[in-house]
Amino acid sequence: MTKFLRKYQKFLLVIFASGLMVVFVAPQAITQYGKGMGKRTELYIGERAINTLDIQQAAREREAIGNFLVGTRLYDPRVVSIVTGENAMHWILLKHSASKGGYVGEAGDGQSWIQELGQAFAARFESEFAASGTEDLDTEMVLQSSIAQIETIRQQAAASSRLNLDQFDLALAHARGVTRMMQSYFSAPRLSQPAAIAQAKFQLDEINLEYVFIPGDRVFEGEIEESQLQTHFAQFQDVEPGEGEFGIGYVRPARVKFEAITLERNAIRDAIPITGREMVNEYHSNPDKYITEFDESLSDEELTAARQVEYDKARAALREARAQELVEEAAAQARRLVLPTLDRGPDGLVKLSADTGLGGPSLEQ
């Protein structure tokens, strides 16, 4: 081994020196390469170039805003996803549009939003507290506590996305600007040109008429005979109202004669007599349903009263069951007596006679 090292000493020194050079130079080269990649332009918004670092920063902002707004429990995650966009590129476009429209303030606008969120957080807590029936509540203390909680969520959201607080406040100001832009868009009155023309025509078109209304009894004298009524009806009996001469018509829409009978379940139930023997048999036939293990310390009077409650349950259950049987039987009898008398077509619909009478026995019968 020693002879091998002496023989190839220079060759091994060259390899070792080359390895050291790679070890010291490679990290710097990778770092320089990464910086160069970060400055690569991904897109243009107008004349502004957006590079990879901008997109990475936008992704961190979007993540931080989402964590913050959802963490306050004042915004639904679906609403937050609309405000922050579908991805980092979308968020950049939303920020640009809001800024161009004048909806975005400085970082202080984001800080003031935190104060407003704290007030909303406190108001919700107060309403929940009031719903519990407790009135002793220090509203100022609740407000300060709520703002402190919102501040804690702010710091956690910024730290988790590797943003300092100034960067986070500026991102939050952009998010607030995006919400203003969306609200102004959704609430702005928009009217298409055809709709505007139609609305203007409706409002501006007018017709001026001069008329004298003369009721029929002012120009008709004498009595109307039955034959005149028959002739008049025969003339307009097949005409739709408003379509014939003078708008007279007597065609009526299709109608159905409907008959119904009401079964008062509660009245039937309350009228059913239950004997003592029936109640006792029901009670002992279903011990798991009615019988309860009572405390041995109960007095005879208390035990009797408790047992009476169980008897009443058994009596009520019997009445319910028999009422259900009677209602079902009544419905079955009605179907058995009435349905066979109806003239049904192939489509299952009932054909009515000329006088719209159904025929057969009435439901009451």
Describe the structure.
The protein has helices spanning 2-7, 9-38, 52-71, 77-84, 88-100, 107-131, 139-160, 165-187, 193-204, 226-236, 265-271, 276-285, 287-290, 300-338, and strands at residues 41-45, 48-51, 343-344, 350-351. 63% of the residues lie in helices and 4% in strands. The N and C termini lie far apart (121 Å). It is built from 14 helices and 4 strands. The longest helix is centred in the last third of the chain and has 39 residues, at 300-338. The strands form 2 sheets. A two-stranded antiparallel ribbon has the order 1-2. It is mainly alpha-helical and 365 residues long. The chain is flat.
Question: Topology of this structure?
Answer:
Layout: H1 2-7, H2 9-38, E1 41-45, E2 48-51, H3 52-71, H4 77-84, H5 88-100, H6 107-131, H7 139-160, H8 165-187, H9 193-204, H10 226-236, H11 265-271, H12 276-285, H13 287-290, H14 300-338, E3 343-344, E4 350-351
Antiparallel strand pairs: 1-2, 3-4
Q: Brief description of this entry?
A:
This protein has 14 helices and four strands. The protein is mainly α and 365 residues long. A hairpin with a 2-residue loop joins β1 and β2 (48-51).
User: β content, as a range?
Assistant: under 5%
The sequence of SSEs as H and E is HHEEHHHHHHHHHHHHEE
Distance between the termini: 121 Å
Count the DSSP helices: 14
The rough form would be described as flat
Number of E-state strands: 4
The low-pLDDT segments are: none
**Subunit organisation of the chains:** single chain
The major pleated sheet works out as: 2 strands, antiparallel
Structural class: mainly alpha
Arithmetic mean pLDDT: 78
Query: Helicity, in percent?
Result: 55-70%
